Amino acid sequence: MLTGEVPNPRDPELVERLVLDLLDPELKGHALSELRKDLALLLWNSFGTIASLLQEIVVVYPALSPPTLSLPASNRVCNVLALLQCVASHPETRSHFIEARIPLYMCAFLETDSKTKQFEYLRLTSLGVIGALVKADDPKVINFLLENEFVPLCLHNMTIGSELSKTVATFITEKIVVDDAGLSYICANADRFYTVGAALATMVTSPVDQLSKRLLKHIIHCYLRMADNPRGFAALQTCLPAKLKDGTFNSCLKDDPSGRHLLQQLLVKVTSGRKGGPAHNSVGRMSWG
Predict the structure, then answer these.
(1) What does the pLDDT look like over 28-62, one tens digit per residue?
(2) Quick check: 195 and 164 in contact, CB under 8 A?
(3) How much is the pTM?
(4) 220, 244 in Cβ contact below 8 A?
(5) 13: CB partners within 8 A, 6+ apart
(6) In sequence order, which residues have a C-beta less than 8 Å from that of residue 107 and are 6 or more positions away?
(7) Where are the beta strands (DSSP E) in 24-86?
(8) Whole-angstrom Cα distance, residue 157 to residue 152?
(9) Could you tell me the domains of the chain?
C-alpha cells in the first residue's frame, strides 16, 4: 500500500487492500490510520481482521499497570478503537459486536487512573466505543452493559476524566438510566443509587468554569430520570446538590432555553411531589437494604 493513498469507500479494491494490510505487521500502522469509519461491514466480514485489531489491544495490557504506555502506542490503540467504534455503531454489525463480547476488551483501559495524555486518550476513545453502542437505544446493549458492570466504569471516568471524558461517561450513564432495566439496576439498593448520585454531585460541585453546558444537561437528565423511581425521588429531596437549586447555573444556561427548561423541570419535579410515570409499581418494590 503506497503512503498517502486515501481510501475511498467507492473504490473496493483500494479498501480491500488496506484491510488486508492489517494482517501485515509492517503495514498495519498505516492501514489503521487510513481506513475510514464507514467500513464496518468490510471490517467485520473480512477474514482475520477483527482478531488482528483485538491483538493490537491485548498487546498493550502489560503497559497499563504500572502505567508505562507510550504516547505512540496509545495513539495506535486509539486508531484500533476508532475502527471498532465504526463496527459498534453500524446497525448490521452492532449485535454481532455485543454477542462477541468485544466491549469487554475496553474494560482494562477504562479502569486505569493515570491522568497522563496517553491514558486519557485511551479512556476517552474506549468510552467512544461504548457511547456508539448506547446511541442505538437497544435494550440488548443496555442489558449487556449492566450484566458486565459498565456502570462503575462510567462512574470512575466521571470522577477522574477530562471534561470530555466526563461528558461521554455521563452520556452513557444517562442512556443506561433512561432504560427501564437501567433505572431498576441503579435504584436496586441505596449503595448503587448514592454511588451514582455522588459521582453526579462531584461534577456539579466542581468550579462552574469546568462544567460545560453539554455535560450539565446530561447530569440534569440523569437526575430527572432517577426521580422517576419513587425511592430515588425520595432520596433526591435531600441529596440534590444545592448548586442546582440556588441559581449557580443561571448564567451558564442563559442562552440555552432547552437547558433552562430541563433544570426547571427537575426542580419542579423534586420539590412539588410529582413522581413520574407508570413504571413505579414494579420499581417501588425493590429493596434498598
Answers:
(1) 888 876 775 467 888 999 999 999 999 999 999 99
(2) no
(3) 0.84
(4) yes
(5) none
(6) 148, 150, 153
(7) none
(8) 9
(9) 1-136 (1.25.10.10), 157-289 (1.25.10.10)
